[in-house]
Inverse folding.
C-alpha cells in the first residue's frame, strides 16, 4: 500500500475530527474501514492522526503565522486539515523530506476538490513554513 493512500486515510480522519467533532479513535476506525492496509501502513496512519491532533495548537499557530490576509477558521476544512497534516510531517517527521510532504498535500488537495487557487495557496503556506523550519535547524 502506498503512503499516499495512508495520508489520504489520515486526512479523512482529521477532517472527521475537525468537522464532525468525532473522537480520534472513532474517526480512525471509520477512515481505516475504507482501505486494506498492512499493519505497518495502518500504524503510519494512526501515528499521523494522533500526532497531528496532539500537536494541533502548535501547528495552528504556525499556520496562522504564514497566512496572508486569511484567518485559519475561514479556510475550507479540506485546506485547513491538509495544511495541518503536511506541517506535522515537515516539523516532526525528519524521515520524510519536506518536498514530499508538500507534494502529497497538493495532490490530496487536487483530489478532494480544492480549487487551483487553493492548491497554490496551500503550496505557498507550506513552503514558507518549511523554509522557516529549515532555518531554525541551521
Amino acid at each position: 500500500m502506498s503512503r499516499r493512500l495512508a495520508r489520504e486515510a489520515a486526512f479523512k480522519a482529521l477532517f472527521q475530527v475537525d468537522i464532525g467533532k468525532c473522537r480520534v479513535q472513532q474517526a480512525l476506525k471509520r477512515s481505516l474501514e475504507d482501505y486494506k492496509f498492512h499493519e505497518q501502513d495502518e500504524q503510519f496512519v494512526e501515528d499521523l492522526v494522533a500526532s497531528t491532533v496532539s500537536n494541533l495548537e502548535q501547528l495552528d499557530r504556525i499556520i496562522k503565522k504564514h497566512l496572508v490576509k486569511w484567518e485559519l477558521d475561514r479556510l475550507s476544512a479540506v485546506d485547513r486539515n491538509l495544511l495541518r497534516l503536511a506541517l506535522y510531517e515537515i516539523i516532526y517527521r525528519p524521515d520524510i523530506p519536506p518536498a514530499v510532504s508538500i507534494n502529497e498535500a497538493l495532490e490530496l488537495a487536487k483530489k478532494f476538490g480544492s480549487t487551483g487557487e487553493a492548491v497554490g495557496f496551500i503550496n505557498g503556506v507550506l513552503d514558507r513554513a518549511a523554509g522557516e523550519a529549515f532555518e531554525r535547524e541551521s
